[in-house]
Specification:
Strand content: under 5%
Helix content: 40-55%
Bound molecules: iron/sulfur cluster
Number of helices: 10
Shape: globular
Order of helices and strands: HHHEHHEEHHHEHH
Oligomer: single chain
Number of strands: 4
Strand order of the largest sheet: 1-4
Distance between the termini: 25 Å
Length: 263
């Protein structure tokens, strides 16, 4: 059986006997459970009022929710190759949302000195000048180190985007190769990826009833806006298109990637 036949068989196995009743996979069930939980949590937070504090609480709540699921992860950390100093994945574009970007900008303002903030912004601007608006294929957007990658490690680790929290790999060498080859097969922990992706999706769903923009954003372009404009959060809450032009340009789902099974 070749690779395409194996995929077709797996797809068929996820359907009922008559072939027209899809059966949710464990990952899909986990995703829906977390999206629903974050939607409820987010709605509760936003119903208290639309202020920057509520936006930051929304993100902090999503991280805490995802962390609580990660505490129950069936995957052994030994199955993963990720560790401090390994940063191949920090050379690819990062997709995120306005609340996450605004939360990071607020944390930088709170934690950094004026000089440190200016240095961080200078790195962000320098990268944005090279990458702004590029589609996210390797052919059109070669790897660049993230503006927050300092001395080989993430300088905003505690506040990093949800997608960065979810990203993981079973093989660092494959990650290195993936920076040069679009079609390389990745192996990763589906539980971790699903958990943080669902938390981000839950944020988006919670924004809807409040008329807040849930567009996918590219981290570098969006954080530049949030760092250069101290009133970005208030303006975004007021419905102004502060992140126009910062949209993520994610290619279609990478069908070549496969995952470690849920344990
Ligand atoms: S924010 Fe941090 S973890 Fe995410 S890509 Fe940048 S350096 Fe890496």
């Amino acid at each position: 059986m070749n690779r395409h036949e194996r995929r077709a068989a797996a797809s068929g196995a996820r359907r009922g006997r008559n072939g027209d009743m899809p059966i949710a996979s464990p990952a899909a069930e986990l995703h829906q459970q977390i999206v629903d939980a974050e939607r409820r949590l987010g709605s509760e937070i936003l119903s208290k009022g639309l202020s920057p504090k509520q936006v930051y609480d929304l993100v902090d709540g999503a991280v805490a929710l995802a962390d609580s699921y990660m505490a129950r992860s069936p995957t052994s950390p030994d199955a993963l190759a990720c560790g401090r100093g390994c940063n191949h994945c920090c050379h690819r574009p990062v997709g995120t949302t306005a609340p996450s970007v605004l939360r990071i900008a607020a944390a930088l303002r709170e934690q950094l000195t004026e000089a440190e903030f200016a240095q961080a912004l200078a790195r962000v601007v320098a990268l944005d000048e090279k990458t702004h608006g590029m589609p996210w294929t390797l052919a059109e957007r070669p790897p660049f180190p993230c503006a927050f990658l300092v001395d080989g490690a993430c300088s905003i680790y505690v506040d990093r985007p949800l997608v960065c929290r979810g990203w993981n790999s079973a093989d660092a060498e494959v990650c290195r190769r993936a920076l040069a080859e679009e079609s390389v097969e990745m192996r990763f922990d589906l539980y971790q990826r699903t958990t943080f992706a669902a938390a981000e999706q839950g944020i988006k769903v919670a924004l809807g009833p409040h008329g807040l923009d849930a567009t996918d954003l590219e981290l570098t372009a969006a954080i530049r806006v949030a760092m250069e404009n101290p009133d970005a959060c208030e303006r975004w809450l007021a419905g102004q298109p502060v992140f126009a032009g910062c949209e993520g340009k994610r290619p279609p789902a990478p069908a070549h990637r496969r995952s470690l099974p849920l344990a």
